[in-house]
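User: Please fill in residues for this 305-position structure.
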């Protein structure tokens, strides 16, 4: 790809029409066209919201967009399947890339711009030489233990997006609660002037949390998948009844296995900025991850007090 002065990629953008009630959406691919868009919004005095995504959008993403629109003047959604957050053997190559569908949904939702860069735009010196960001201890527990290096990739790409977009706020879902807390820590430690906004998990009527990877489920697996949420609810009930944490965790594992899922973890944690081991005085949250067929499912719920 040709570069302009100082290694800046040339502007490449497109306009996508929304409906009669929605503005035209700008599709931005390079750093220069993103900078042009951002500076134009700043000259207007706009408050900018960023919604980072991997694409393959669903109603859960649109809930993030709606919250971003409520809190800002201009919403930019990033769509980037980030290679550094996928470990070898994971589904990076097969992860659904549905940019045309996604931009159509976002135009109808009134999003002003989509940033859909290539890996070369985000990692100009290549993946092997990319600067990564570690956020201990959050990056090394739960999903971080199951997927080594995953959160280094997440923190690295979010750092780049915050630097490129310079948003006033960024919106994330509570389904990926560990990621949410990690990004809050990233903002605190690296002094990003970005407000982090959390949106509750969007669920199907069965309780199954919406996820792009749900489409990997067969019809039979989709019927069994809500067991993950039910196991969390059962765990919360047991904690409220005074059952010891160890028994709650072992019962959650057993329930998932009995339902045909392959659990990675079922863990009770403090609901704080480090998600540390539970204590009697702190609010609690239960986290679970399990495989069902080719789909890796994650979920979490707070324990009512």
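Assistant: Residues filled in for all 305 positions:
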């Amino acid at each position: 790809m040709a570069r302009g002065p100082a290694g800046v990629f040339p502007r490449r953008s497109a306009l996508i029409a929304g409906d009669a009630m929605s503005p035209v959406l700008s599709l931005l691919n390079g750093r220069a066209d993103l900078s042009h868009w951002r500076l134009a919004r700043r000259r207007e005095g706009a408050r900018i919201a960023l919604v980072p995504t991997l694409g393959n959008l669903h109603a859960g993403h649109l809930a993030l967009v709606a919250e971003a629109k409520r809190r800002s003047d201009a919403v930019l959604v990033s769509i980037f399947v980030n290679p550094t957050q996928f470990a070898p053997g994971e589904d990076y190559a097969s992860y659904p890339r549905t940019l045309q569908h996604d931009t159509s949904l976002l135009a109808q939702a009134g999003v002003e711009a989509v940033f859909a860069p290539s890996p070369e735009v985000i990692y100009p010196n290549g993946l092997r030489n990319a600067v990564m960001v570690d956020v201990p201890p959050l990056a090394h527990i739960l999903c971080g233990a199951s997927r080594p290096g995953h959160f280094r990739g997440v923190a690295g790409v979010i750092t780049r997006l915050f630097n490129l977009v310079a948003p006033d706020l960024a919106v994330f879902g509570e389904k990926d609660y560990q990621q949410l807390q990690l990004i809050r820590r990233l903002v605190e430690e690296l002094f990003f002037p970005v407000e982090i906004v959390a949106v509750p998990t969007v669920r199907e009527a069965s309780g199954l949390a919406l996820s792009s990877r749900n489409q990997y489920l067969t019809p039979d697996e989709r019927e069994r998948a809500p067991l993950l949420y039910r196991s969390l609810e059962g765990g919360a009930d047991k904690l409220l009844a005074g059952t010891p944490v160890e028994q709650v965790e072992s019962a959650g594992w057993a329930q998932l296995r009995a339902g045909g899922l392959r659990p990675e973890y079922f863990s009770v944690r403090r609901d704080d900025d480090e998600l540390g081991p539970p204590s009697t005085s702190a609010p609690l949250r239960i986290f679970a991850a399990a495989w069902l067929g080719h789909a890796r499912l994650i979920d979490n719920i707070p324990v009512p007090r």
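For context: The beta strands are 13-16, 25-28, 48-53, 74-79, 113-115, 169-173, 195-199, 262-270, 284-292, 295-302.
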